[in-house]
Amino acid sequence: MAFLEARDLRVTYRPRRAPVVKALDGLSLAVPTGTVLGLLGPNGAGKSTTVKVLTTLIRPESGTATIDGVDVLREPDRVRRMIGVSGQYAAVDENLSAFENLDMVGRLYHLSARDSRRRALELLELFDLMDARTRPVKGFSGGMRRRIDLACALVIDPPVLFLDEPTTGLDPRSRLGLWEVIGRLVEGGTTVLLTTQYLEEADRLADDIAVIDHGQVIARGTADELKSQIGGQRVQLTLVSPADADLVRPVLARVGTGPVQDSNDGRTLGVTVADGASALQEVLGEVRRAGLALHDIGMERPTLDDVFLGLTGHATSAGDAAPAQQPAGRSAR
Amino acid sequence: MSAPAGVAPVPRTLGPVAQWFSDGWITTRRNLIKIRRVPDILVFTTLQPIMFVLLFSYVYAGSIDIPGSSYKEFIMAGIFAQTVVFGSTFSGSAIANDLRDGIIDRFRTLPMRPSAVLVGRTNGDLLINALSMVVMMATGLIVGWRVHSSPLEALAAVALLLGFAYALSWVMALLGMSVRSPEVINNVSFLVLFPLTFISNAFVPSENLPTPLRVFAELNPVSALVLAARTLFGNVPPHAPPGGSWTLQHPIPAVLIGMAVLLVVFVPLAIRRFGRITTR
């Protein structure tokens, strides 16, 4: 039996003056001991709701969930002694210092005053926050907030760690820093459920990935398995002039098995294909006939973006959807 | 044990009573630190009451005649009551803030008593109000207010004021968990509590008010609170007419009953609500 198991979870939100939302629509998942499951999906797919059910915050209408054999719905208090949670909003007290936050969490886990203080200092050291330990969290940068929030989740070194979009809204440098910290934890053998809308994050941190959309798991496997599941390869080319993109797109659409994807600057286009070699030859022939200048062309294994597109028919649009989950002013404070 | 996380201590399992006290103390301590860190709270709780005492004693005292007594003596219980009633709204806005910031989610995933956060918060209000009371009474004594009863009765008056405000804190806590943004609490306290404290016997004898306002003032629970405190401080004017409602004829039992009803109804409601809320 898996360390963490959820079966057929259903949660429905009934907001006032808005349509009913089936946040979880029969979601099931299993995380074996000591592994990291990446729950990958766009905003509104049900990632946070899954975490909230498993961390005792929300009761589902139906379904079951167990952590190390303990029933999450029947014995929430026992489950709370076994879990650490770090969310997308750094859930710490703004007016308390880094040390005071950690010490408070320690005391609420009912550590002795001495143990709690010792552990707080240990975690401050580990997360490189020793210099900021007496400063109120209010003045912390986004990356520091996430670190103190993650540290709060590790006060008792829980057997299961929930990381709900741990790097959403962070700048690339802070994200890399946090990935390193999480990577080290994972090597230590903690069982982790990680939610993310960044494909790269799931690829990098998770052993297994569950792709989730509309409250259901729609695909499951390692990053490599998912990549091969939607077809072998991918042809990608970069044009010298973005103006030529419209000429190349129909060619790619013809040889491809999925929709053509553009990069942000409009010069790089790619498509998944069934037979890489012949598709590449055909594209090259067409490009030469049209007399287009290429910067680069090649064959690649598909990215997780392709996986998502292939599975759901729509892009993850992680970039432009992110602000919707971060109400104005939250990250600025 | 995972090497990078260090050697984590093992949580103790406390008995229910020990756990209740421990959790309540830790969350209270959190609010005490906040009082120290946020200067606005201290300004609101010390300077504003001083200002009210001074304004009412010097601006209005000359114009409002209280037969057989002085306005300064009359007004003090009213200022006390208004201040502690407004003091109870901190719980509402603080909990609405906690909910917005996501820290309620953190608390709810910890193995603590679900009531502890609310106990800590309402205790915070109680301490703030106690501080306000000390400051106001000292200011009052300086400007000429006197207690004309026994020290024990004066103490009972303070206890009644603080107790009623404490009960109100639980109502505000529930409200704080039911609104969409913390700002709503401030609007509610402004739009509801201002009329409630002003259309009462706090600042003027209610028998002088026009009939509709007089009826409202006589039934207003704040009037009962003010009269109860005024009675226990010995500040009721000698020839004041008896109250027009049961609550004003028996202000002390009325306040005690009101307090008990608020606590019995709103403490369980607030704790129940806390067990279900989460940041959306």
Structure explained in plain terms:
The complex is a heterodimer of chains A (333) and B (280). Chain A is α/β, with parallel strands linked by helices. Helices cover 37% and strands 25% of the residues of chain A. Chain A has helices at residues 47-54, 76-80, 98-108, 113-126, 142-153, 172-187, 199-205, 223-229, 245-255, 276-290, 304-312, 318-325, and strands at residues 4-13, 21-31, 36-40, 62-67, 70-71, 83-86, 160-164, 191-196, 208-213, 216-221, 233-239, 261-262, 268-273, 294-300. The longest helix of chain A has 16 residues, at 172-187. The relative contact order of chain A is 0.14. Residues 318-333 of chain A have low confidence and may be disordered. In chain B, 72% of the residues lie in helices and 0% in strands. At the A-B interface, helix 3, helix 4 and helix 6 of A face helix 1 and helix 5 of B.
Gap between N and C termini of chain A: 44 Å
- Going across the major beta sheet of chain A, what is the strand order? 6-7-8-3-9-10
Helix content of chain B: over 70%
Count of domain modules of chain B: 1
| Strand composition percent of chain B | under 5%
Order of helices and strands of chain B: HHHHHHHHHHHH
Q: What form of chain A results from the Cα inertia axes?
A: globular
**Class derived from helix and strand content of chain A:** alpha/beta
Q: How many β-strand runs of chain B?
A: 0
Give the low-pLDDT segments of chain B.
Answer: 1-5
Question: C-alpha Rg of chain A, in Å?
Answer: 23 Å
Quick synopsis:
By secondary structure, chain A is of the alpha/beta class. Chain A contains 12 helices and 14 strands. In chain A, a hairpin with a 5-residue loop joins strand 12 and strand 13.
How are the secondary structure elements laid out?
The complex is a heterodimer of chains A (333) and B (280).
Chain A: E1 4-13, E2 21-31, E3 36-40, H1 47-54, E4 62-67, E5 70-71, H2 76-80, E6 83-86, H3 98-108, H4 113-126, H5 142-153, E7 160-164, H6 172-187, E8 191-196, H7 199-205, E9 208-213, E10 216-221, H8 223-229, E11 233-239, H9 245-255, E12 261-262, E13 268-273, H10 276-290, E14 294-300, H11 304-312, H12 318-325
Parallel strand pairs in A: 3-8, 3-9, 6-7, 7-8
Antiparallel strand pairs in A: 1-2, 1-4, 4-5, 9-10, 11-13, 11-14, 12-13
Helix pairs in contact in A: 3-4, 5-6, 9-10
Chain B: H1 16-37, H2 39-60, H3 71-87, H4 89-101, H5 103-108, H6 116-143, H7 151-178, H8 182-198, H9 211-219, H10 221-233, H11 246-249, H12 251-274
